[in-house]
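Our working data are protein records whose layout never changes between entries. The record below serves as our worked example for the rest of this section:
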Amino acid sequence: MPIPIRGGERLEVEIHLNPVPALRLLFRVPVPTFDKSTFVFPQLEQPAFDGSTFVQNDGTRPVAPGLVEITGIPAGHYNIRLNGRGAPAIQMNGVDLTKDGDEIDTSVAEALSTVKVSVQLPGETSLPPRLMIGLRSAHRFMVGAQPVNDKAQAEFQQVPPGRYELLLWAPSRPYSIVHLSAEGAEVSGHSITVAAASSPSVSLTLVSGSLNVEGTTKRASKPFAGAMVVLVPNNPEGNMDLFRRDQSDLDGTFSLQNVVPGTYTVLAIENGWDLDWSQPAVIAAYMKDGRTIQIGDQPGRPMNLSEAVEVQSK
């Protein structure tokens, strides 16, 4: 179960474990045509909260051509990935394994994909060192992270079908995506939708976020301390990496760091720190009373909001 943790809290959690019966399962798997002595082996992955974890077993062995036995698996809801030397990786999602001796037909599994990403950074002669690109699923699970090589490229292999947000980071300074295009995948904001057995090519244009936005919060014409200040980008669902947050100080002032040029709505919410602000449906309730601002390209100089931001009740 999820455990909410607020700032400054110190919690103790007791976890009680109970043994459960283990299952013996049979998997009908593809037989490689080039070498019938080679087996494709299932690997079980269990969704957990916003991510997933691979599941250990007591043993995996081939019992016949195209038939593999796995023992020591607790009953549950699994994703099944199949790998084999020289065979394409495939995956089945959302399979309920509940009965000992079940036989699972993997013929409906979908082939995994390869995503190639290229990067450009206008105005700079070279990319920052140790620049990384990540793919994050709609459930906020990081599918993988890859370094950008000296050819300004990165490649993700064995990517399941689905929608993914592209993220990037470098130790030297923050960078954000200002333009994303793709061949072989649908694009929405900073996200792509990958089809089964596809090989999309994604092109990213980056900018370093070095502009600070400063302002003041108020209520009843007086400075307001402790409000959550959120800078919300256009198309929030597809631009998660452009959000910025701060808390107003005792004099009502705030500073939003490393903002990328673009159009935003700035909000101030009383006691808003336990809101799931990253969910568009949650933040949408406050957008109509926010203020739209345009952030220009003026690196090195902070942008000061001339009017105070009115604090909304939670």
Observations:
- The chain has a mean pLDDT of 88.
- The chain is about 5% helix and 50% strand.
